[in-house]
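2024-03-11 09:14:02 INFO worker-7 job=invfold-0412 stage=load source=structure_tokens
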């Protein structure tokens, strides 16, 4: 299983779940690379999918460049990032921090043509296995140059959102890989690493690189870009304390970003505004770390109980949280993963349904931190600003399932869509009658969003719990 929550922050997402069909391509065809938008429409291109065809006078999106097309591409579910293809290949995304920034060729200061949006879609179009996916994305990114949509500008580089992490799972051979990627030296090319997760483990990504000790002698469990440690050596970033031998390279320790007190214009992971960027590394430490601790505690209680919730997580945290923790085979169920996405630290000392800020009805939802206060509220797993979330089950024989839920996870209902579907979802799931900035009763997202808003206003804590967890 692979999950993802689209915690959009202040932007108005294009809230369509689009079906990209399986297609065959004539010899010599070229595949365009786009700068995919977050807002509606994310792209206009009938060649990509009939559901992306221009309407109402729209013009086709101008590509950043082209790469050779393959003879046949698989069908898949698509949002701003690729979701799951007909072979069961499944992808979840998290924007991450890094010590480099990169921009697309759409800007006069950019040299790169491959964002994580297109890379994830190319993996689903061309691959059946997770290993193929990380190798395909890595090679294209190194050749075309990688950029993040959240890199800010040269005068205000956004190191807090300038890189990307993916979790990539397949139906056969049944592997999950962590994929970390950032722009290379001088705003060009790419530096990336991938690590295979043991089959009896659970893993979480929370806006930070999590691959630490790459073993250069273990090609079964680690893949990486050419000269992956070169920039770290050149810049003096290498974390030698986390490298017990010359065969080990601490990727996260070298390339993950720790803000300094002088970083006043740095944008942080999705949803944090620029005025919050001055809050220091201590807050980012727990913005990232608290979720890692909580997810491991919920999905692997025996291992999670060994972790300190007050430790936090930054690139150079001594003895950092592990990339993954063991969980007995079969012990993690689909329902457990759904409930984890609905979590607000209930029952812990960080419970957002308790205290004065929760108000008389125990709401766990918090707005942005006021400008005159230091720090911020606990960063829950389920956020009021989530546009959608999904849990993907990778199964053999065309039986893979995308469980898709609009709006905040704590008030959504996950509907199943087959990864091998031969047509798109209900009209309301990809309607163009409206979008997040234009109300329409024909757009499913609006129904979920309105119910979540009313629930937040009128439901007491016990009722909120019963909605999210009807078994109780």
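2024-03-11 09:14:09 INFO worker-7 stage=emit residues=472
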């Amino acid at each position: 299983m692979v999950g993802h929550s689209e915690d959009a922050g202040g932007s108005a997402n294009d809230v369509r779940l689009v079906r990209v069909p399986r297609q065959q391509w004539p010899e010599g065809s070229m595949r365009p690379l786009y700068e995919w938008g977050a807002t509606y429409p994310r792209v206009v291109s009938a060649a990509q999918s009939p559901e992306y065809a221009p309407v109402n006078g729209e013009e086709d999106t101008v590509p950043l460049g082209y790469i050779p097309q393959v003879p046949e591409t698989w069908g898949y579910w698509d949002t701003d990032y690729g979701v799951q293809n007909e072979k069961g290949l499944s992808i979840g995304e998290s924007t991450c921090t890094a010590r480099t920034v990169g921009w697309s060729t759409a800007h006069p200061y950019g040299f790169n043509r491959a964002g994580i949006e297109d890379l994830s879609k190319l993996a689903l179009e061309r691959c059946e296995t997770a290993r193929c996916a990380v190798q395909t994305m890595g090679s294209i990114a190194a050749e075309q140059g990688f950029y993040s949509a959240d890199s800010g500008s040269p005068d205000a580089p956004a190191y807090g959102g300038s890189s990307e992490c993916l979790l990539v799972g397949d139906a056969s051979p049944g592997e999950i890989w962590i994929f970390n990627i950032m722009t290379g030296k001088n705003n060009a090319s790419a530096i990336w690493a991938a690590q295979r997760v043991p089959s009896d483990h659970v893993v979480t990504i929370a806006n930070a690189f999590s691959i630490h000790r790459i073993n250069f002698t273990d090609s079964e469990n680690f893949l990486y870009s050419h000269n992956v440690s070169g920039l770290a050596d050149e810049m003096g970033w290498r974390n030698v304390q986390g490298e017990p031998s010359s065969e080990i390279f601490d990727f996260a320790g070298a390339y993950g970003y720790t803000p300094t007190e002088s970083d006043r214009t740095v944008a942080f992971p999705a949803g944090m505004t620029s005025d919050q960027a001055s809050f220091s590394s201590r807050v980012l430490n727990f913005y990232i770390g608290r979720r890692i601790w909580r997810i491991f505690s919920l999905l692997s209680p025996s291992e999670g109980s060994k972790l300190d919730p007050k430790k936090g997580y930054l690139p150079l945290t001594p003895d950092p949280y592990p990339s993954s923790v063991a969980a007995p085979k079969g012990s993690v169920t689909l329902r457990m993963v759904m409930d984890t996405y609905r979590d607000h630290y209930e029952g812990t000392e960080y419970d957002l349904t308790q205290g004065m800020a929760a108000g008389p009805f125990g709401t766990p939802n918090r707005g942005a931190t006021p400008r005159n206060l230091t720090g911020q509220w606990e960063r829950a797993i389920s956020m009021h600003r989530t546009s959608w979330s999904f849990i993907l089950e990778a199964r053999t024989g065309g039986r893979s399932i995308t469980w898709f839920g609009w709006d905040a996870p704590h008030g959504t209902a996950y509907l199943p869509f087959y990864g091998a579907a031969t047509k798109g979802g209900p009209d309301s799931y990809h309607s163009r009658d409206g979008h997040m900035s234009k109300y329409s009763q024909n757009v499913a997202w609006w129904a979920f969003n309105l119910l979540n808003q009313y629930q937040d206003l009128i439901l007491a804590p016990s009722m909120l719990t019963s909605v999210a967890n009807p078994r109780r």
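2024-03-11 09:14:09 INFO worker-7 stage=report msg="DSSP finds ten helices and 24 strands in the chain."
2024-03-11 09:14:10 INFO worker-7 job finished
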